[in-house]
Amino acid sequence: MVSVVVGTLAYGAGDLISPTGEALSYWTAVGRVLLGAVYVVVNLLWVAGLALLLSVSTDAPLGAVGGAVMVSIVSQILDQITALEDLRNYLPTHYASAWSGLLSSTVDWGDMARGAFGSVTWAAVLCAAAVWRFSRKDVTS
Q: Is residue 10 part of a domain?
């Protein structure tokens, strides 16, 4: 919200011109940018689930953070390998940039729905594994 206010003060409340050259009215653009931010938050839930799993599996907090960042980077690299074909659709980062479809005049909700579903599924599995792991861990420190 702060960036919307600062951007409006700095650049005015004119139309948003997307990278494809399409124009969106100010309020439509604000709504879609905020919806895109919500999508990014939902799309990153799997990273939080993975970091939670790693944090209950190690005593080093930076190991959990580093592991989550590393898996995210590796997933993005694997997504660029076209030889993987349909396997790429199951990577958690495959639909990470689907929010950019919100900047066109007609929105294709398919990729965003698949990305949100995939991310929530990955997050649920990873959080369940973290809860299972933590419930069997002997907490001594």
A: no
Geometric angle at alpha carbon 130, from 75 and 86, rounded to 5°: 30
Question: Looking at the domain assignment, is residue 94 inside a domain?
Answer: yes
Q: How many domains does the chain have?
A: 1
Closest CA to 50 of 141, 138, 136, 124: 124
Indicate if the alpha-carbon torsion angle 94, 99, 101, 106 is positive or negative.
positive
Prediction pTM value:
0.85
Boundaries of domain holding 58: 40-135
What pairs with residue 24 in β-bridges? Answer: 16
Answer whether residue 4 is part of any domain.
no
Which residue do the tokens 């895109």 mark?
A: 36
Say if residues 51 and 71 touch (Cβ distance below 8 Å): no
The model's confidence at residue 1, banded by pLDDT at 50, 70 and 90, is confident
Asked if residue 78 lies in contact with residue 96, where contact means CB atoms within 8 angstroms, the answer is no
Separation of alpha carbons 89 and 98, rounded Å: 13
Of 98, 100, 124, which is closest to residue 46 (Cα–Cα)?
A: 124
